[in-house]
Task: inverse folding
């Protein structure tokens, strides 16, 4: 089995040996602390911001390392085409409303003709009874009344279709306006914009990762403890973090999370050789005065309870 390179145990074992090399158990000092390597992260994690829409970037209003407030525009994608479609759809609505007004006027005329034709037919029925008109005249007035009523009903149907078109155009306006709004990417949290992964002029799609954001709040040190000592680490234990460059203490904090299971893969498996030992993830909430860099690696000492 390989050794665990990043987990160091700060304890001393002093043993005297007999001729049979039997250790003196009474001289073994208890383990008081565990030292490991930790990574500095925001408590809420690093946020990858996606473009959410397709197009070419025209502006990046927030600079790297600057504070972005929740809802503040941080990236703007060209929306001129979408705005033009909104304008075009609204113009069509105006034209459609004019068409509706014309149809309503036409229908009013058709209603007058239908009513008149029906009145003539009813009059001819009475006149036929006193032989005031011929049967042919009555039949002709009946046909005229039926046709006038048919024309009126067709006008009403056409008006419904024209009116329904207004609803479709309003939906188009809403859609294009929504697409245009999506071309402005807003900060999902209040925090520091750490890195732009794109530049003005780049073409992005909805899934393109454009920025990395560190939400405002406390920073944590995320580390791992070897399975041999995992049960000794408890929530509430104090810890210090030290610079790997100078060895100086650069922050302190308290353990606030201990994983309920052991895993094989190390946090730093991408940076060191793979290990076959199991580990327990531990997170330490650092005090606000900690002088650390996000994503930085530090040495971490957890002080075990006796």
Result:
């Amino acid at each position: 089995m390989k050794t665990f390179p990043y987990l160091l145990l700060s304890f001393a074992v002093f043993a005297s040996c007999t001729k049979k090399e039997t250790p003196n158990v009474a001289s073994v000092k208890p383990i008081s602390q565990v030292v490991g390597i930790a990574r500095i992260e925001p408590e809420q994690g690093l946020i990858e911001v996606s473009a959410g829409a397709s197009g070419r970037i025209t502006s990046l209003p927030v600079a790297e390392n600057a504070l972005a407030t929740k809802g503040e525009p941080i990236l703007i994608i060209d929306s001129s085409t979408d705005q033009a479609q909104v304008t075009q759809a609204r113009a069509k609505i105006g034209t459609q409303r004019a068409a509706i007004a014309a149809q309503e006027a036409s229908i009013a005329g058709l209603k007058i003709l239908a009513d008149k034709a029906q009145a003539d037919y009813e009059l001819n029925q009475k006149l036929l009874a006193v032989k005031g008109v011929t049967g042919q005249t009555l039949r002709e007035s009946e046909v005229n009344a039926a046709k006038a009523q048919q024309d009126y009903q067709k006008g009403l149907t056409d008006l419904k279709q024209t009116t329904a078109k207004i609803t479709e155009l309003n939906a188009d306006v809403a859609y294009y306006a929504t697409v245009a709004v999506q071309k402005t990417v807003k900060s999902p949290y209040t925090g520091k914009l750490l890195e732009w992964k794109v530049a003005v002029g780049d073409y992005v799609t909805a899934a393109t990762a454009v920025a990395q954001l560190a939400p405002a709040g406390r920073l944590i040190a995320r580390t791992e403890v070897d399975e041999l000592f995992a049960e000794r680490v408890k929530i509430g234990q104090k810890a210090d973090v030290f610079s790997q460059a100078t060895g100086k203490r650069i922050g302190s904090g308290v353990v606030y999370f201990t994983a309920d299971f052991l895993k094989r893969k190390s946090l730093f498996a991408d940076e060191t050789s793979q290990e076959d030992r199991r580990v327990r993830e531990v997170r330490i909430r650092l005090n606000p005065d900690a002088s650390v860099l996000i994503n930085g690696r530090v040495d971490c000492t957890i002080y075990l309870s006796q």
